[in-house]
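User: Quick sanity check before I run a bigger batch. Here is a single chain. Can you write out its predicted 3D structure?
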Amino acid sequence: MADPQTVKTDARRHHDPDVRGFASDNYAGAHPEVLAALTLANGGHQVAYGEDQYTDHLQRLMHSHFGAGAQAYPVFNGTGANVTALQALTDRWGAVICAETAHINVDEGGAPERMGGLKLLTVPTPDGKLTPELIDRQAWGWEDEHRAMPQVVSITQNTELGTVYTVDEIRAIVDHAHGHGMKVHLDGARIANAAASLNVPMRAFTNAVGVDVLTFGGTKNGMLFGEAVVVLNPGAVSHMKHLRKLSMQLASKMRFVSVQLEALLAKDLWLRNAQHSNAMAQRLADGVRSVDGVEILHPVQANAVFARLPHDVSERLQKRFRFYFWDEAAGDVRWMCSFDTSEDDVDSFVQALKEEMAH
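Assistant: Done. Predicted structure follows.
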C-alpha cells in the first residue's frame, strides 16, 4: 500500500492549487459546499437512474425557481444537455435558428448535427444576441420541402460574447418565435451570471416570458460535473426521458448530479458564485481600461472580458497566465473569471499586462 504522505506529495506535483488563470470558468475546481453535498449523498444505497430521493427533491427546488410545471432532467454535460433538449423540441426535418457565435454552432464539435441530426440555421450578430429582426433572416420556408423547417429558436443567456439579454428582449424573441409556431430553447450554461447581472430571479427571463426549455448550467458555477435540461412547457417536448437515454446522458448514480444542483439552488450559492465572478470581471475590465493599447470589445455584463491587444503581448502574457485567443488573427482574446477568482488574481494579471505592454 502506498504511503499516504507520498501520494499527497505526488498529487501536488501535478497541480498547484494556488495557481489560477483566466482561460475558462471550467478550469475552476468545485465549490467546497458542493463537495460537502457530494459527501452528504454518499453512503448507503439509493435507487439508480433518477429514482433516488435527491433527484426527487431537486424537482421541488426547480419548481421554486422556475414554476410548478418545471421538470428537471439531470445530465452529464452541457453539450449533452443542449443536444437532448433540441432533439426533444424538433421533428426529424426540423431546424434550429441560432446566433452564428452560439455554443451549439461553434463549440460542440458538430454534435447537434452529427448526434442530434439537427440543421442549424445561423445568423451573424454584432453582440451575440438575436432579435426578432435577425431571426426573420432564417424564419421562412416552413412549407418548402427543399429546406429544413425552422422549428426552434435557441438563445444563450448570457451569450458567448459575455453580453446579457434583458427580460424584455427575451420576451420579444419568445413572442416572435411563438407567433411563427416555433419553440424557444435557452442555453443557460451561465444562467446564474445573467440573473446576477440583471438582478432578477432566473424565472424572470425563462418561464415568466414563455421560454419552453432551458439547459441549466452548473459546472461553470461551482459544480464538479453535471447540468440539467429543464422543461418549462411540457407540451413543447416529446419523449424527454427516452431521448436522454438515447443521447447517453442518463446517469445511473444520478443522485451525485442532483445533490450538486441542490447545493447550488437550495439557498443562494448559485447567486453568490455568479455575483462574485461577475464582480471580478468588472474589476478586471476597470483595470484594463487604464492600459493604453488595449481595447475592450464588448460590454462587460457577466464574467467575461473580451479585448484586443498586440499579438506578441498576448503570447508573452499567456506564459504567465492561461487564457485563450478568441480571434487570433485579429488579436482578440477572452478573459474569464470564476467563482474562485480573487481580487489579487485580477490585480496581478492587470499588473502583468501593463508590464508586457511596456516591454
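The longest helix spans residues 269-288.

User: Great, the batch can go ahead then.
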